[in-house]
Model the fold of this input.
Amino acid sequence: MKERIAVFPGSFDPFTIGHCSIIKRAIPVFDKIIIAIGLNDDKRSFFSKEKRTEWIKAIFRDYDMIEVDTFNSLTIEYAKKTGAKFLLRGLRTSADFEFERQIGQVNKSLYPEIESIYLLTLPEHTYISSTIVREIIKYKGDVSRFVPDIIASEIHHSYL
Amino acid sequence: MKERIAVFPGSFDPFTIGHCSIIKRAIPVFDKIIIAIGLNDDKRSFFSKEKRTEWIKAIFRDYDMIEVDTFNSLTIEYAKKTGAKFLLRGLRTSADFEFERQIGQVNKSLYPEIESIYLLTLPEHTYISSTIVREIIKYKGDVSRFVPDIIASEIHHSYL
Amino acid sequence: MKERIAVFPGSFDPFTIGHCSIIKRAIPVFDKIIIAIGLNDDKRSFFSKEKRTEWIKAIFRDYDMIEVDTFNSLTIEYAKKTGAKFLLRGLRTSADFEFERQIGQVNKSLYPEIESIYLLTLPEHTYISSTIVREIIKYKGDVSRFVPDIIASEIHHSYL
Amino acid sequence: MKERIAVFPGSFDPFTIGHCSIIKRAIPVFDKIIIAIGLNDDKRSFFSKEKRTEWIKAIFRDYDMIEVDTFNSLTIEYAKKTGAKFLLRGLRTSADFEFERQIGQVNKSLYPEIESIYLLTLPEHTYISSTIVREIIKYKGDVSRFVPDIIASEIHHSYL
Amino acid sequence: MKERIAVFPGSFDPFTIGHCSIIKRAIPVFDKIIIAIGLNDDKRSFFSKEKRTEWIKAIFRDYDMIEVDTFNSLTIEYAKKTGAKFLLRGLRTSADFEFERQIGQVNKSLYPEIESIYLLTLPEHTYISSTIVREIIKYKGDVSRFVPDIIASEIHHSYL
Amino acid sequence: MKERIAVFPGSFDPFTIGHCSIIKRAIPVFDKIIIAIGLNDDKRSFFSKEKRTEWIKAIFRDYDMIEVDTFNSLTIEYAKKTGAKFLLRGLRTSADFEFERQIGQVNKSLYPEIESIYLLTLPEHTYISSTIVREIIKYKGDVSRFVPDIIASEIHHSYL
Done:
């Protein structure tokens, strides 16, 4: 039996309900999904890697098929090391599409055995991004509509 | 064990190497793929449904997991009847993306249990479409780069 | 006091909850909104002009500031005759945007005194269009999520 | 009588003839327009907030219905405080559209009572942006086609 | 010396000031430009091929380097026959771009020796298309801003 | 005889096979092509200007009609000084198109005598950019598919 393993890469700074929805809808497609938090040395993240990891682990505590990991390399190199045969990504807008197409085609060129699989975000999540969430936090606005409850309540207590 | 069945709908008038590539790359994702030829009463097709079915069956003759069928209903209604839990589609350009997003969101709204799964076409197939192939045939041009060999040789003998 | 009159043109074949939402959200902007059903001789409509008019009038029965009319000319010529200084349009996707921009700039060129004013459709209405609704009706699918109740119930009885 | 107040937010670094055109065309829509200069602590602006304010005030000196203000918060929070019921924005390209759609939908989600109203820039202003103007100034090029006269002459004397 | 011959293909139904501008701006690039009117058997044209040819010939009467011709084949086949090494096209919007990219890549695949060369339409011509002009004529509107004078005056006398 | 000189501007940090392909395909259009490396004081480049110049010169060593230069001004000012009448640019995606259209229209406005001429990148080069190449180098991935051999081998020895 082939086991279908997918990597869902991102910086998740922070994880949003849009990310959450894509993963839950992708569960029937795969046998295992690895949520892989990319650590980019160049960019200071808003939330620490420990906090980002802790939150995502808590959200998927009851899902045996979902793992959480961090990586600091090309996404495709990381995926190769895990044995995954799929990358999972969400598509929100045609701007997203153009960006994802470039990344997807580079990855395909570097390592053809791994396929990128896309789901469309739900209409009501189309405008949600980590960037927007950080912007709202910066000005002490309410992000409870945009991130999972566990993240919202901690942000509410610590950052606002 | 959950069986992953996907419907790959289209008019395939005719089937191109772009369609062929998407299906072959999707084989590792699913346990069964049903290539479903949509028959639209309003539009006269260029090739008969018998010819389109025959060609696709011949191309996938050696693939047990691939079935070929026709339907004359909403795609999502057809998918529901087959027991499929997935629709499979290829994305070529951002124009494609906008079109597919609308269809995908309507389908999700009509029947949330079925997920649409997208693959990006390979860069070298981005510009290939059934419409372009028909246009070239109409002017007796050479379509052998754009359709599978079996279709190209028959078109060459019968239409040019 | 300047009176702000807007024309909301379309074929409304049929009127959808997306159209309805744009109009209700535009009420605070204008003093009068004329919903103008364009009759295009070239295209046979799916629903008769009488039916389309009747439905829209019923939906806005309680809104004094909203009128319903038909026209068979260039939209901008019609608007000029009514004395309106604004055209109102909804924008769903970037494909929509490119189309609307062309129309808007032609209208501005033909009659600079009239401004086109745009609202974004709500995320949950982005994928709803009259074309999709007609397609679903043709295959006897359920359109009750996409059109106002009064239209849905009549379609349910007469067309399905 | 309802008073229609709109906020036109931006960094206006500097104000261009594109901004100017949108505002003048929006005058018939609203009773008051507040041009709101966003001060973003993270980004050093090219022109000081005092200079940007002074220029815009000079340009609209003779317009009673136009006010100029600065803010340092989420745009939608600022708008709420002013009592405005509308945000006014210009749309130039489909890239703009995708960006504005995200912002507009976030704002609608945070504060549904405020509607964002869009005008298309004129064709001849489509390519003008503050970013381009700053780039040209940096290389001592001529920006007199792109900014109002009062700004052009001052830039000419002070920066070139 | 290499002679640079370009084919500028289109249906030109009718020729617009946008077409005219692209050709005049392309004159410094080429030694000869063939304006090639495509005759598509499937579509009835609005203006006869004789009328379209006559108009374009009159417009470029004084340009020795510009020829006018008709063709009824694949554009690329026609170009090959003329000995042209270039196709010339104008790009207006990103919708245009996606369409032209597909056509251009098909042509490149069918006949790699011929390069497609693109110019951007001027901002003030972006929204002008033959389709819009025909639509305006149908409703007896004024097209004098959109087509060369010689065409405008004849349309004014004969069609309105 | 008019001499056709084109400037092909870019930061070329580094030069890719996509750039290389555009230039080679543009050779039949022009009599001289100046590859002009823009030096932007604000951004630290990844490769030094000497290295970038050396590489491009080596690649086109056997092409008399191709020159390599650097500039530190507005592109259009630089082009004017060289006597070029054309700017040459490649178009990959519709995101590219929107960006290039803005730049092209600004340049046309600043100096109407210079025309920007566009070629479409080949489908197989659509996803290649200097940014992607730098990102891969940063993580010590293999860029040999994306840059000319001479650059690939030097990067392989010096950076990985």
Chain B touches chain C through 13 residues (CB under 8 Å). The longest helix of chain B spans residues 94-110. Chain B has one domain: 5-124.
